[in-house]
Amino acid sequence: MSRVGPGRRTTVRVAALPARDVLPRLAHLVPSKRSLAVGCGLFAFAAAAYALAWHTSMFALRTIEVRGGTPALRRQVRAALADEVGRSLLGVGGAGLATRLDPIPGVRSFTFDRSFPHILRVVVKAEVPVLVMRRVPGSDALLVAASGRVIRVLPHPQASHLPRLWVKRDVPLEVGARLPPALAGAAAALSSLRYATLPGGVRTVTVGPDELTLTLGHGLQVLLGDATDVRLKLAIARRILSLTGAAAGGTGYVDVSLPERPVLSTNPQVGGSG
Description:
The protein is α/β, with parallel strands linked by helices. It has helices at about 20-25, 35-55, 70-80, 95-100, 180-190, 230-245, and strands at about 65, 105-115, 120-125, 130-135, 140-145, 150-155, 165-170, 200-210, 210-215, 220-225, 255, 265.
């Protein structure tokens, strides 16, 4: 091993590769004129084929298959998409379908699949009704979904066992629109009860400023307070009513507006607002 003493310099020499030796090595990476011509030809062919498929009947939509929802809802979906028949499947996309399907009140969401050459498959997720809106004075009734959207008019509301929410005649309600913010909490609360009902079921809903009250089938009230933490409040109320059997008594209330301090009263002289 050699050593370099103090004050002595070392010299490092780097051998440079002559340019004339580098260029031949890189030349094989450059595509030939023939390769470029073949590539351009393939691209042009693909573009022509795509244009042909777009503007001719090669992939024209002929069949629309709809799944999900009720038969009536599927008929509405097919009618809304009828103008798509004859178009190229290549031109059928989510934005265009949403423009046609979103206005249908019963459609909550949808997915689609283009099955070439001629079939469009649409799977609809229907709105779930949870509430009947009644306006007074008057006899009209409107079906409301868990999302808060008004689905349709109910010609025979007495045939529905869904909870009722009574509002004044001047409250704006329109099929296809969503409930006003002050009422939306009622639909959200009832949506949470779809898979775990309260004993006796819910008969009516009362909405006030920061106040949401459910009246059960036998008359006992569930005071939820504002529309926050609804699932937690309902779970607590369900637990209390299941352990005590108070819902069968038909009087009093269970107050879960403060989930950490629930109150059960079966005194008919003391009750929450409703």
